[in-house]
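Supplementary Text 2. Reproducibility record for the structural model of the 94-residue chain.

All settings were left at their defaults, and a single model was retained for analysis rather than an ensemble. We include the record here because the model underlies the residue-level annotations in Supplementary Table 4.
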Amino acid sequence: MECRTFERAEAFLAAYSPNSFDCLITDLRMPGMSGMELIRELMVLGSRLPVIVITSSMEVESRSEAIAGGAFAYLTKPVGEELLTRTLNAALVR
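Retained model, structure tokens:
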């Protein structure tokens, strides 16, 4: 799989256009725009891009907000390679 990384959510949004990415993996806590703000902005843009959240936050409210906001999956760190691969493959066939 080909992967691109971005230092901030804002940099990802600057590069984003419909059908330019197959999936997004993000954290909730990042410098600048948060992962939830990024998910909301993608929804405003009408994006159907599957979003996988990987975070250290085990707060039930954070998980509920992310899933209700459109995240495909919410995984807590540390995430094993097998779980991440399985989740990513499920997001890609969606």
